[in-house]
């Protein structure tokens, strides 16, 4: 039998408590899958103002962060994650985390974010040893947890409790690196000698993620394709050389689908249950969605989007392609929020085509299920996509993804062509160029597929038969942890 491990997740978001996107869903589902495999996983996150009172548990210890001479005090709370019961450590400090936003206001990021997330890491390093539970592996997610990786591999290297504990760093999105002006470095408590171009300095700024990429024992990202892409100039967001230099220690492990939440046979949010064998309920879900969004209940192709509205997601490309397709009769439903300019453009197009484009600006989990279930197609024209979760939900719900072939979209969607349609493997419509023209042509191919009901049924059922459950991914992470814990160190 494999050794059961103590695993500490260091992460800034976890569903259902605090979420701005896929990271929180992954932290929730992966921690609970690893727990199902018998590991003792615990999740550490800041005790944000947004956390409901009942999730805050009790104070188990005082903690203090030694910023190299300057000491800041806080408290460590312990509670558990609603649903899975995974134990939580919450780092409390009103000044840093008792604010309205998680990372900032609508107008700007908090200027002291580097200090806030260094406080988070320093507090865990200080307080956890007193609790007696020692992780066999620390798994840091995204730049907010980069300071933890950096401290473990620098100031805490010789610490009797922390020494020899391997660190995994996972990149969920390379676009956010925790990059701040050099003058803020002194307030982080990170050893000054790391502020150089080899480690934590990038174009004169401090770059927290670069430090973690340099120092963590193993690096992962959330799809095999993205793991390769980020080693190239086009997708490396300035860090491709650093990533390429660690290519042996960098693996891509695909995210999964939390089937307890996303299963069309038992989804409390949708109008009728359905499955690959009994797909009839899907038509009721489509009519329900059309009604709910104020669109005519008509037999036309319906495209859905559930997305953060940012440059990454390529929604601007779609907005250029959309009007002519709406004019031809297609319908589109969009749920999302983000960049005010994009929100404005989306509303403007919907104002011109009120019977064809229905928009809800905001975050609405229940509506996201209805869109995934009721649409014929799910649009994801992403410029880059580390993994993407919604296309996997769509596949499970017989909603054909229309995606740009990048990152996790490349790894999870089998492009429709004569061969793949013939051998029954096609699951989606794919395109490559980052242009409005390519998005439009992909929509046209989707609309053509929609008119060929036999072909559509084959593509749908191939998608519904795919298994993207977390079990496989959790197994891959568990073997990585096992290898690291066994040898107490770096993979490359
Ligand atoms: P990212 O993390 O880049 O936003 P993912 O596809 O990995 O992309 O995850 C996004 C998650 O957030 C999905 O589960 C999606 O359904 C959800 N989501 C995004 N926007 C909204 C929204 N406006 N309302 C409800 N859920 C949303
Ligand atoms: C990021 C990526 C997304 C990925 C998610 C969870 O937000 O943009 O592609 O699925 O992290 O790993």
Task: Annotate the secondary structure layout.
Elements: E1 6-10, H1 22-36, E2 40-46, E3 58-66, E4 71-80, E5 87-92, H2 94-97, H3 113-131, E6 137-141, H4 146-152, E7 167-171, E8 179-180, E9 201-202, E10 205-207, H5 208-215, E11 218-221, H6 224-229, H7 240-245, E12 250-252, H8 281-292, E13 302-309, H9 315-327, E14 331-338, H10 340-352, E15 357-361, H11 365-374, E16 377-380, H12 390-396, E17 400-404, H13 407-412, H14 418-422, E18 429-431, H15 436-451, H16 453-465, H17 470-487
Parallel strand pairs: 1-2, 1-6, 2-5, 6-7, 7-11, 11-12, 13-14, 13-16, 14-15, 16-17, 17-18
Antiparallel strand pairs: 3-4, 4-5, 8-10, 9-10
Alpha-D-glucopyranose (GLC) binds at residues 21-23, 26, 172-173, 222, 255, 385-389, 408.
What's the gist of this structure?
The chain folds into 2 domains: 6-256 and 471-487, 3-Layer(aba) Sandwich (Rossmann fold), CATH 3.40.50; 281-468, Glycogen Phosphorylase B (Rossmann fold). Helix content is 36%, strand content 19%. It has helices at 22-36, 94-97, 113-131, 146-152, 208-215, 224-229, 240-245, 281-292, 315-327, 340-352, 365-374, 390-396, 407-412, 418-422, 436-451, 453-465, 470-487, and strands at 6-10, 40-46, 58-66, 71-80, 87-92, 137-141, 167-171, 179-180, 201-202, 205-207, 218-221, 250-252, 302-309, 331-338, 357-361, 377-380, 400-404, 429-431.
What does this molecule look like?
- The chain has 492 residues and is of the alpha/beta class.
- The chain has two domains: 6-256 and 471-487, 3-Layer(aba) Sandwich (Rossmann fold); 281-468, Glycogen Phosphorylase B (Rossmann fold).
- It is built from 17 helices and 18 strands.
- The strands form three sheets. The protein has a nine-stranded mixed sheet, sandwiched between helices.
- Helix 1 links the parallel strand 1 (6-10) and strand 2.
- Helix 1 (22-36) crosses helix 17, helix 3 (113-131) crosses helix 4 (146-152) and helix 4 (146-152) crosses helix 5.
- The longest helix has 19 residues, at 113-131.
- The radius of gyration is 23 Å and the shape is globular.
- The two termini are 27 Å apart.
- The mean pLDDT is 96.
- Bound molecules: adenosine-5'-diphosphate (ADP) and alpha-D-glucopyranose (GLC).
- Alpha-D-glucopyranose binds next to helix 1.
